[in-house]
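Lab meeting minutes (informal)
Scribe: AK
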Amino acid sequence: MEAFLSSTLAVAIAEIGDKTQLLALFLAARFNQKSAIIAGIFVSTLLNHLLSAVIGVWLAQFVSPEMMKWIVGISFIAVGLWLLVPDKDGATNNRWLQYGAFGATVVLFFLAEIGDKTQIATVLLAAKYQSMLWVVAGSTLGLMLANVPVVYLGHALMKKIPAKAVRLAACALFCILGAATLLGSGIALS
């Protein structure tokens, strides 16, 4: 259950202000099919995060537990610091829009998540907890919690959420997870 809760919270907070939220906003403005967009976000996220969790669990099999704790702990801190850097707005490739709300959302979200902070976080969480089911369920729920309101509330919501404060909170959360991972292995941070 810890894997599920940690994954949900970490990904939901990390996703706020992310480029995929801007993509959700764009798609909601472009298509008037909110349920198709939400279904596309879900399918894309589930596939992307399942692949990420498989990689995380696979990686953990080839690295000693002590080394894995170092890698995961330091990586969590690195992701936390990375969250302080806001995403740049990117142009959306219009060729995918011809596939409709669901198809465009699946393709564009999957592509946008490749190498994204939440994908990296999913790899790290799966490596740490060795629980693909709970990490994928939590990270997918976290991404949905952050993006579904954007589809429905759009611009009004984005104006009320201070992106800088959210990035600082997400940074703190990932740094705490990293420190807890390192301390949990008996490593004293000095």
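Next up, CB showed the second protein from the same session:
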Amino acid sequence: MAQKKPKFYVVWRGRETGVFDSWDECQKQTAGFDGALFKSFDTKPAALKAFKEKPHLHIGTTPKAATQGKVPGLVGSPIEDSLVVDAAWNTATGDMEYQGIYLATRQKVFLKGPYPDGTNNIGEFLAIVHALALLHQKGSNIPIYSDSRTAIGWVVKKKANTKLEETPRNAELFDLIDRAETWLRTHVYANPILKWETSVWGENPADFGRK
């Protein structure tokens, strides 16, 4: 993974407002705060200038058609210092694979599969847990993005609620599911698991491009 570039975070609306020099400090002010408004910047002068300006000049400026159904100004931009994961499922063969990329550089961090007789939701679930375990090993609390609400929900509940039937062909996949669920039950992590807002930001960068 490439060395992280410093980021500066402007919080226009949160527990405390101002310019913060770490994602952890930004999260302290915004996580769980209703209507929080914040965005990252590459330089401190840019962040200080933005803080003095109205937040709508920097976030929530996506065309109306793209933000339909969203609360204006609350989506903002994706956090560059993050991992983005996605899965691909071949409808013809039933094979599934998943991968994760570091958003700031688009560097591929991991690629797993293909696994026979899988599903896309299982792949999304395994990708998130794989990212969590990898970042846990590195002592990193950066966010993880997924475009699957189902998979995010499974991770929160620490259980893959799949209806897929286990067969000799996908036995390895079910073993991976068991290991992922065990990891979730036995580890504590601080990484935010966030929804990739495709309608606003475009296609998930970890997408396999096979649609």
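CB comment: The chain has two domains: 8-57, 83-195.
No objections, moving on.
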